[in-house]
Amino acid sequence: MTGCTDPNLMALRLGKAQNEWLIRCSDFGSAYCDAVVKYKEKLKEQEELNKERAELYAGLIVSALALCGGTIFTSVFGISASKDAAGELLKNKALSVATQKGWDRAKTAISWTDQNATAKFIMGKAWDKAEKKLDATLTSAFETLIRRASVPSSGANDRKYAQVAQNNMENMVREWSNSVNLAIQWAYQNLDDDDSVEEIFKTSPFFHPPKTSIDMPRMTDRIELSFWMNDVLQRDFLKTTTRSPNYFAGGVGVDRVTCKPITTDAWSKDYPSRPRDRSFTTGKRTEVFYQQVGDVIVKHINTLYAKVFGGPFFLPGTDLYGNITHETIRCAQTAIIQLADSNAVEIRKSLPV
């Protein structure tokens, strides 16, 4: 038996890699927990923790994985677990868009197609040979692994939710280890050359956990900042006021007012602008409004933003029309893209050469 298929050596290498990935999951879980608790406590302090924000769970952790996970594992786990956050992301357009930007950049960094991502996640470059001899054994391993990628749809509180999500990540690492072990045995028995087994060791991401540990304060700050930038992106809306028909007849009536969030990209030419004509010549008026941010949150966001990007988010002397404007929305969107780009760089660094 060759050295790379010796049972004792295999167990040692699998165990070492698994433990390092488990530590990575634990660190991410702790950073996420600290970030989400700080975020919601600050909203509560500013008296802005409404029911919708309080009950955000799956959407927040999936967005954190998309923008700040920093590894191939968190990307594969997060992309697969996004199905569990579909309901929250559907209701929260800004969070959905930010998460998708993160996944788009992560997929570019990984340079795998959706069709072979799980296979290469397990086998690395050895998949190029295995693909032609695919059988039920490997197919089942791939499907079992991806089923492990899940996050709870809701939770009792943020700390308990973060712990359950972390446990799910750790369970997927263990299943990943089992799948890699199975792939090694399968390659030894079904592929013609011994080099294929060694290629799994050399090129499977499982055997290449990040060489550096997580900087916990840095990751916590970046995750929390991503929450606040998404929060800012949800503060623009269209207010439509419809005059009562009685008003034009000289009578007394009650205007009907409706509001809906703006879902247009803040950098798009189609983003709605403030109307020049604020009259009711047509019986209806639609205006752009922005929900302003309280002083407690302004100060907190500026502190976080300075830690991550080196300067304040809310610039002094630019709040003539309020601290949330079209320009603020644009800046928040740019910050999300910068976080996604930075995350993609970290993912690329974590991949085996």
β-sheet strand percentage: 5-15%
Q: What is the rounded Rg?
A: 25 Å
Helix content: 55-70%
- Let me know the average pLDDT: 88
By secondary-structure content and strand pairing, the structural class works out as: mainly alpha
Termini separation (Å)? 27 Å
Number of strands: 3
Number of helices: 15
What's the domain count? 2
- In order across it, which strands form the biggest sheet? 2-1-3
Which helices and strands occur, and which strands form pairs?
Layout (H helix, E strand, L loop, with lengths): L6 H39 L5 H4 L3 H11 L3 H10 L4 H6 L1 H18 L6 H7 L3 H4 L5 H12 L10 H33 L4 H9 L12 H18 L2 E7 L2 H4 L7 E6 L22 E7 L4 H15 L16 H25 L3
Antiparallel strand pairs: 1-2, 1-3
Notable characteristics:
353 residues, mainly alpha, 2 domains, three-stranded antiparallel β-sheet, 3 strands, elongated
Write up this protein:
The longest helix is centred in the N-terminal third of the chain and has 39 residues. The two termini are 27 Å apart. The mean pLDDT is 88. Strands 2-1-3 form a three-stranded antiparallel β-sheet, with no helix packed on it. With 353 residues, the protein is mainly alpha-helical. The chain has two domains: 207 residues, no CATH class; 107 residues, no CATH class. It is built from 15 helices and three strands.
